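in:
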């Protein structure tokens, strides 16, 4: 709901801060006091195009900030939080919209402090608030919103989920089918190339990790003499040198220290270390002798390894891959060859899946259409009756649900849904978007909201000109409807009728003040006594009489 509105340098409003509450808030004031300016400022922060003429004459910019609460105890506003999360716009319990326009024509918009374009702020605004009476921001005029209102009222979440799942799955399978079908010619050419490439690789007979193992073998064979020399020299120094070898040296030192331990036991660690060294040197000599016997100095094996490595390098260069990746490339080509070889089978399989999913999708759509038509009939009667209570005795409301099978498939089914209405007896229903009278449109919207408010996901509603052309008992009914609607939604109503104003949970008065030849519009929250006086003014005009005051007090006492 709308919690706070800040306006600065907009038209004749120098600076204004307003706090809003739940329920029905009525705004009253004399003609020209600035009620329409207040609504214009709200429209601007909700994404209207900026007009530099609306900036106060003595200012360089105008700024409007609207703060909304999206703390949802009834889980009706989770879609707003989800949308903010998706847009990475900091979804807390509050949502702040800010708009700033400058004299040079530059305009900036922000959501929770993040700069956004107007399209984004309009998309969010349509979820937060609906303004009835003028076409601006009236989301109910849009076909998508009309469909959503009907589906919400009919509780179609399960049916819609089925339609959506089949639609997404069918679209995916169709894309795969079309991709295979469109590439049939290229596929045949590719098939010949793949067969040649895979045959060439199969002739090579490459095994996994063979290239790395060949490199290691080649390095051994190419350096066999050097390895043999190193091993022989090490064995000689470790054990075969008659004058000075390491094994004899360690044995001598060990015998010397073992005798010394008898004189000082502190030398025991050194003896243990030498004993371990003697064991390790002995093991090293044994290993080197075994290695020496197995050193291969076969020139023929070396030539074979070099030839094999060269063959792998040549084929890897041909495929433009590192030799280490040639085996993986071969497996990839074999898989592609297998896929293409079985492409016709896959095409047939995908076609069968498409036909099956098409039938499931159409069946789910048919169930959804049937339920929509049934729910539309119920809504038609309820909203038509609601219109009659608001002074449109000849009014009629009809939801057109057309299930044309030629309609482009969508995630929401095949139906075209359109709200149609007439306010006068004898006239045919026309689309809601073609209703000419702002007052009639506001009252039709009110009639609708009275029925669908409990399922609607828009938390805040504003009605402007809802009392246009009505009076007396009808005006009182309009007010009662607005108050009743305010029990479930936040409702703001700009009104000129006392019968409507008296129904408000809160009452704000817009007034214009002139000081030092400068005009400024202010909004005042009325106390109980001030409210009586304001309603009396609305009843009697400029001169407030004792009778009008008593009448006003009586009207408020009935609430």
């Amino acid at each position: 709901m709308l919690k706070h509105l800040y306006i600065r340098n907009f038209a004749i409003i120098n600076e204004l801060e307003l706090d809003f509450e739940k329920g029905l808030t009525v705004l009253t004031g004399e003609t020209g006091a600035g009620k329409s300016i207040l609504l214009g400022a709200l429209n601007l922060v909700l994404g209207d195009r900026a007009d530099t003429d609306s900036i106060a004459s003595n200012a360089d910019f105008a700024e409007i900030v609207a703060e909304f609460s999206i703390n949802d105890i009834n889980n009706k506003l989770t879609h707003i939080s989800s949308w903010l999360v998706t847009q990475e716009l900091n979804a807390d319990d509050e949502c702040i919209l800010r708009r700033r326009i400058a004299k040079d024509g530059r305009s900036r918009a922000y959501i929770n402090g993040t700069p956004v374009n107007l399209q984004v702020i309009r998309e969010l605004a349509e979820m937060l608030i609906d303004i009835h009476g003028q076409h601006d921001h009236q989301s109910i005029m849009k076909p998508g919103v009309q469909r959503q209102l009907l589906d919400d009222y009919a509780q179609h979440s399960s049916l819609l989920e089925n339609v959506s799942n089949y639609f997404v799955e069918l679209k995916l399978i169709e894309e795969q089918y079309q991709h295979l079908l469109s590439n049939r010619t290229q596929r045949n050419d590719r098939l010949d190339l793949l067969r040649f490439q895979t045959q060439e690789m199969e002739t090579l007979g490459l095994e996994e990790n063979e290239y790395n193992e060949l490199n290691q073998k080649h390095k051994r064979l190419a350096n066999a003499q050097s390895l043999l020399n190193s091993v022989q020299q090490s064995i000689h120094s470790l054990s075969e040198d008659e004058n000075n070898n390491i094994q004899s040296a360690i044995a001598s030192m060990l015998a010397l220290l073992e005798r010394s331990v008898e004189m000082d036991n502190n030398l025991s660690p050194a003896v243990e270390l030498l004993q371990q060294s003697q064991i390790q040197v002995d093991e090293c000599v044994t290993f080197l002798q075994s290695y020496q016997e197995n050193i291969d100095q076969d020139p023929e094996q070396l030539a074979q390894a070099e030839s094999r490595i060269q063959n792998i390098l040549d084929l890897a260069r041909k495929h433009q891959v590192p030799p280490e990746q040639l085996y993986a490339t071969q497996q990839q080509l074999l898989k592609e060859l297998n896929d293409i070889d079985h492409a016709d089978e896959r095409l047939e399989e995908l076609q069968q899946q498409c036909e099956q999913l098409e039938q499931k999708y159409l069946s789910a759509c048919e169930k959804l259409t049937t339920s929509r038509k049934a729910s539309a009939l119920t809504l038609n009667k309820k909203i038509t009756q609601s219109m009659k209570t608001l002074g449109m005795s000849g009014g009629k409301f009809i939801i057109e649900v057309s299930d044309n099978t030629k309609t482009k498939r969508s995630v929401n089914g095949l139906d075209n849904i359109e709200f149609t209405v007439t306010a006068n007896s004898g006239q045919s229903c026309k689309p809601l978007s073609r209703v000419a009278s702002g007052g009639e449109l506001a009252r039709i919207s009110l009639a609708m909201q009275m029925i669908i408010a409990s399922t609607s996901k828009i938390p805040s509603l504003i009605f402007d000109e809802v009392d246009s052309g009505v009076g007396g008992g009808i005006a009182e009914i309009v007010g009662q409807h607005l108050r009743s609607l305010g029990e479930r939604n936040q409702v703001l109503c700009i009104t000129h009728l006392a019968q409507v104003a008296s129904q408000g949970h809160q009452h704000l008065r817009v007034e214009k003040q002139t000081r030092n030849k400068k005009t400024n519009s202010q909004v005042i929250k009325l106390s109980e006594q001030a409210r009586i006086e304001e309603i009396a003014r609305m009843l009697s005009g400029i001169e407030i009489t004792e009778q009008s005051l008593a009448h006003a007090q009586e009207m408020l006492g009935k609430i």
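note: Residues 205-341 form one domain.
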